[in-house]
Every structure is written in structure tokens, then in C-alpha cells.
């Protein structure tokens, strides 16, 4: 493998910095999903922690370094999960955290950011506008701008999931990773390709937010004018060049899935695994649903990366009707 | 503490026998629950494993001992979770497992028992009739009858949860434990009272299935003629004398809660923790809801012991309406 920006030794060292409450998360086979999906399915569950997503693996690194350097404040743009995680990690280390988010972001995520004592600023636009505003705040206040996927700590924090995957017996054939800004995909992908290169790394994005997938396919940054997906956690429009470069080195494929498949995936995870997940966390199951032949007979791990949903929206999505068997 | 039937050294040794997939489960503070509950709340999550309940900690011990002794078969009565766990543990060790259950048991639990290759026999009555039938099968076939809560492995398996609780920092004040047959309560209670006796052990049962709580209060076995609760996992009518004796040594209190509180507890765990739980797993939250003053300002751990629900029933219980704030 050509060198990514990530470093495996640093990722191993990160395990000693991250609060253990975010490490060594459940990894287990879920046979009840298998008849409908036609392959062996294991779940890596990143939701059973105080912020209900994997993002704190990265923010623990960021906040720890900032505190070690005597910094007192940080700002980030977030669709909600990074902000919640940075607020949690910062609070424990005496950092003033500001989070900039779209006013259209998931209300439950915004509520939790406020509850964790962070300053929340809403912008009247999408996530890309929030990124611009966060950068302006950082420049004006002279504080650290935490940029998801660009900042190496966000990638290497996520990469600790990879360490927990490659050490397992029995091993698996494929890992399915939600693709947004790319921290999770390049992080896990780096470790998998460095330590278990035979394992296939497949990234999944919604058809309604395809910028990074289009960029991966064309091997150059492709932006879009808008996004249209319920998977708020991965709805970016402007891929970061350095992150794309890493993704090109570690991803075996990047696929796009329909909204209907994401919803069916959420329903299946509820019905067969008893898991409430946010749309981004159902992308892996959606990818299997859309291409069963590709995965038939294989052992697939899907990373369930977050569970922060507005309950009313969740009920609308999964409904009360029994799941239609395929 | 007077001696229970359980042995702390044997419980420590049990950790080496139980498949690690069932051990070291998530334990984390859930601040989003705290405004409504008025105390610090941590969750011990026993649902993120292949059988979605804590029961496999015990069946791993049972099945391992049976396999070591050259046994080929076992039978148990179950409301669903023990049967699923014994089926899982037995399948991996070449045991023929028979599960006897009420035909009124949760359909999803019965489906999973069948899917795990166990023989399932339904009786036209409640769990106590299933226990009688399982005993008859064991006697007729000359195979091991696995009796939940009476068989020491089921208690000592559950007790490994206690080991994971007492070692934590910061420590907590109270542990809330669903009370059914008593394996979970006597198991966790034994370890807590042996290793952290200052921690309060509170057992919770539904008002509609109060036999063990009544027995604990009167210090003698009290049976009931029927049960009436959605908490199928704890709906016994005939407490086992030896288990009651242990419970009298380790429980600081046993309380009864209303069905409405169980349902509110399930809703709160969905809305504020993103967790789908079966009714038995909401008993702890229900107990706090019914007596906030008792727990005010304390740090309480509640064991979320299972998530096997029929999704249609779950939707009926938690509904789609937003949670009413108290």
C-alpha cells in the first residue's frame, strides 16, 4: 500500500489516549439478518457510548492534544455527531467548545450539543456553510478549528475501529463503511489495508449525497450543488483533496444507494437486530440489499456508526408496519 | 455477608469459559436520561450480542460443562431468552437442545430459538407449565434439565456482570436489577455484596408478577395464581426456595412497579438512549420514575438485560407520540 497520511503506530498509540468507554465496542454476528441479506453479517456497534457515535474516538485525540498544549478553546462545524463528541471530550478537559451547525440539522443532535455545555451557533444553510462559518470563528478568535476528516486525529481516532476489526477470529471478507467526509473510511481503510489487505474495503454513500463517491471514481474532487438524503451524517458536497487522496489508496470500491434501501436497512436493523440506528449507520445494509449477488456467501462486517435520530422522524421512516420479506 | 450458594472464585473462573462475545459489555453514563430521572444514570448493556440478552453468560457455563462431561442433550423451560441462549451455546458444542415454552411467549423469541436449531415444544399454558413439561422430558429422556436460577451456573454466569460492575471508576451507589426467577439478581447481588457491600442492590418486579418480591418481603415462598404483565421475561409464579434464600442475603430491597411505568421506561430508553429494550429491561428506569426522591442525586446503574421484542408489540407500547416530559 502507498503511504496515506495516517500512521499505524500512531493509531496504536491513540488507544492509550482515548477514554476506554469508546474502545473495544461490541462486534458480533447477527444471524437474524442473514436470511434476508444472503451473507454472513457481523455488526461493529459504535452507538453504546455517551455520544452514540464513533466520533468521540477522534475528538478524544483532538481534545487531549489541545489540553496538553494549554489550549482553552476549539470550534468545529458539524452535522451533529462530531459536535456532540467534541463537546463531550472538551468538557472533560476544560475546553470551551463552539459548534457550528445547519439550522436544518437533526434536532436531537443539537439538543445534546447544548446539553453538553458547548456553544452552538446555527447557520441558515447546509453543512458547507457551517464549515465556512466555523473557519471564520477560528480565525477571528484565534482558536483551533477542528476539521472533520482533514484533521489527522479525526481519521486516526476512527482508525482504532480498524484495529479492533483486524484482530478478530474468525476473520471476515468485507467491511462496509459509511462514507461522508472520509474520516471513518480512510481511518478504518488504512488499518485494514495495512494489516489485512485481503479484506475488501467498500465505502457507501447515498445517491442523494454522492460527491465523495463521484470524486473517488473520477480520481479528482467533484463537488455537487446540493444534497438530498435523510442520511444527514454523510451529506457533504465538497470533498477535501487530501482525504480523497487517502481514500483512493485504501478503498476497493465506493457505491451509492437509494433512500428506500437506507430506510429498509434501518427497519431490518430494528426488526432483526433490535438496533435503532441513524440513516448513515444503515448504509452498509442498504448496499447489501441493492447487490445481494455481490455479497452472497461472504462474511461482511458493517460498522453501525451512530444512533442519534429524532424519534418522530425515526418512527416515520421505519413505520409500524411489519417488514416485507424479500 | 452470610454464604450464598454462589462462589466468587468460581465466578471469576467462569470468565474463562464464557465466549468473550458475551463479556465486558458496554457500561456508560447516559446523561440524556438524567433530567427526567433526577439522578446520575449508567447503563450496563446486555443486548449487543448474538442472543440479545445476558442469558448466554449462564448457558455458556452449562453447555461447556455438559460438553466436557460427554453429554449430548439438554432441555429447559424458557420464556424465550434462556432458550435462545441455551440453543446458541449448545449448538456450538454439539448438544441437542430442547426448549419448552408457553405458546403465548413472544413470537420473536420463539422464532430465534427455532432458527438456532433447537427443538421447540410449546405448551398450552404459562411458564410454570413449561417448567413441568421440561422436567418430564428430562426425566423421560434421561437428559440434563437446565433450571434457570436454580442451577448454579445460571446464577454464576449472570454474576460475571457483577464483576464488570464492581471494578469500575467512578463507582456507583445503587444497582437496579430486574427480578424474575432470581438468577440475575442473586448473581449480580452476590458479587456486589461480596466486593462492594456499600452499593445498594435493588430488585424490581412488575406489580403483575410479584411472587418473588412478596416472597422476599415475607421471607418465605409466596406463589401467585396468575401473572399479568408485558414483562414476559420475569413473569414467574412459583419462586424457588433456594433462590429466595440467596436473594434474602444479597438484596437490599425488592420493589414492584406498574405497567405504565415500564412502558414509559421503554419510551425513555428509546428517546434518550436510542435503545430498543424488552419490558423486563425497563424495570430499573420504571423504579426510578416511581420514586424519584429515593434516587435523587445518587449514581444508579441499571442493567439493560434484553432486547428481544416483537416489533409490532413494541410499536404499540412505545407509540409514535413524543414522550411527555415529567
UniProtKB/TrEMBL annotation, chains A, B:
Domain annotation Tryptophan synthase beta chain-like PALP: ranges: 23-306
Keyword Calcium among UniProt keywords: no
Molecular function terms, GO-annotated: L-serine ammonia-lyase activity; threonine deaminase activity
Domain of life: Bacteria
UniProt record, GO biological process: isoleucine biosynthetic process; L-serine catabolic process; L-threonine catabolic process
Matches recorded under InterPro entries: Ser/Thr_Dehydratase (IPR050147), TrpB-like_PALP (IPR001926), TrpB-like_PALP_sf (IPR036052)
Keyword Lyase: yes
Keywords: Lyase, Pyridoxal phosphate
SUPFAM superfamilies: Tryptophan synthase beta subunit-like PLP-dependent enzymes
Cofactor dependency: pyridoxal 5'-phosphate
Pfam families referenced in this protein's UniProt entry, alphabetically: PALP
Protein known as: Threonine dehydratase
